[in-house]
Here is the input.
Amino acid sequence: MARILYSGIVSELKGSVKGTTYQRNVAGSIAKGKNNARFSPSTFQSSELTDFSYIASIWNALDWDHKDDWGGFATYNKRTDFWGNVKSISGYNWFMSINRNALLAGDELWTDVPEDANIQAIPPYSIDVTSSYGRINFGAPVDLSDLTLIVNATGPRRATSLSSRQMILYLKQVTGSGIQYVYFHTEWSTAYGITWSEFYALPNAGLWLLPYSISKLNDVSSQYSANAWP
Here is the structure.
């Protein structure tokens, strides 16, 4: 940035010329270079970008009959997002959402449309936390064979309200039958860089758990089934 002192010939410059912006602020008249924002994606973000590009390439290769089918699917099915908002989305967005879920859950990708957009609800659960572990407790063994349970969580917090403007990280996924407990403390410690015992010892320790399901029948995901501890 440079400060400018104008003579009697040039009274003032405003605007941008080849990356240099001329403006006036409390310091007087200045010239500064254009800011170049830099984004360094995390490993997970890089993976998501790669998956998005891969799925988009599959969509681009579809014939128009398949694309029309996805458009019809979108006409008759609304999408409920993670926060419970019901939205109308395009056939392309349905295709991207379902196949992104399929990749995450390790299912086969879709080119034909599913029969429906029904979700598989997560059974009611509680959170058990001690100084040694954190786990989801279903109360009794449950059958998750028709869904993949995706476990996400916030970092340490004691807020009584939950909003989308906060860090929520993926921890793990689970499927199968006879499941009563899903332990998540090891993955949480790795994701947030704090040992579980250190977290538990914090004066105001707490977190939000935000699991959701991906149905193995159509790879449609549910909204968050949010629960807080304590």
Remarks:
- The radius of gyration is 25 Å.
